[in-house]
Design goal:
Strand content: 15-25%
Shape: globular
Helix content: 25-40%
CATH class: Alpha Beta
CATH superfamily: Aldolase class I
Number of strands: 11
Strand order of the largest sheet: 9-8-7-6-5-4-3-10-11
Structural class: alpha/beta
CATH topology: TIM Barrel
Order of helices and strands: EEEHEHHEHEHEHEHEHEEHH
Number of domains: 1
Distance between the termini: 29 Å
CATH architecture: Alpha-Beta Barrel
């Protein structure tokens, strides 16, 4: 099985829970959380903002042992950032020495210029694609995933689910043999179940919020931990060992 690394954490064999942070206040309080319902922290910098000391806070999170993904999502893919590519590229470059991974949209083309820098520093690039209206055909998504995988440590595909056939399309995409770990998520009310079911059949990451939902149908990170510990023995064993908690739930 193909794997990647976010810091010292292996990505690919066992699904990992990404806890999403969408405010600077949540970012500053992260390392003080008594409960740790996550494997990775995603800093939604497009919402947190860049006019504060976000990088120092990311450094503290990394020092605490939690890998950080910095995401600066553009408006056309559901984010808040209206910065141009040159500005976003500079921000990502400033983050690379500190964090374990950056998330760039396939459509932005930024992976082409950032992947070599990230690889040289031992960091990961997550190349993502989002469709908040529909789920494209399997052929379209397969081509998107193939293109994304050329400059990615991990590929993320997230689409809106309007029907049962959409769910089947995403599951078929996930079951293909890919060169890099694949994260596949269905958004919306019909897609919520995929945040638990897809990690059980190969999706390398699943996202849950730590403060407020960052996508349609997103569940609290705590709920994902509870469900995956009950559903997936390998996750339960690994998560329990790393967090030093009893395996039974």
């Amino acid at each position: 099985m193909n794997t990647a690394r976010f810091g010292s954490l292996e990505i690919g064999r066992i699904p990992r829970i990404v806890g999403t942070l969408s405010s600077f206040d949540s970012l500053t309080r992260f390392t003080k959380l008594a409960e740790k319902p996550y494997d990775v922290a995603e800093v939604r910098l497009d919402v947190v903002g860049t006019g504060n000391d976000w990088l120092s806070e990311c450094k503290l999170i990394e020092a605490s042992g939690t890998p950080v993904i910095v995401t600066l999502r553009i408006v056309s893919e559901g984010g808040k950032s209206q910065l141009g590519n040159d500005q976003r590229k500079a921000i990502f470059k400033s983050a690379l020495p500190v964090v374990s991974a950056i998330d760039v949209e396939l459509k932005s083309g930024l992976a082409d210029s950032l992947y070599a820098d990230a690889k040289a520093q031992g960091k990961a690039v997550l190349v993502s694609f989002h469709d908040f209206d529909k789920t494209p055909s399997l052929d379209e998504l397969s081509e998107i995933a193939s293109q994304a995988g050329k400059r990615a440590s991990v590929v993320k595909i997230s689409t809106f689910i309007n029907s049962a056939s959409d769910l089947k399309t995403l599951q078929s995409l996930l079951q293909k043999d890919w060169d890099v770990p694949m994260c596949v998520i269905g958004m919306g009310p019909l897609g919520t179940s995929t945040r638990v079911s897809f990690p059980c059949v190969g999706s390398c990451l699943t996202y849950g919020y730590l403060d407020v939902p960052a996508a349609p149908g997103q569940l609290p990170a705590r709920t994902l931990v509870e469900e995956l510990r009950k559903t997936l023995p390998t996750f339960n064993e690994d998560f329990s060992a790393r967090h030093q908690i009893p395996e039974s739930v």
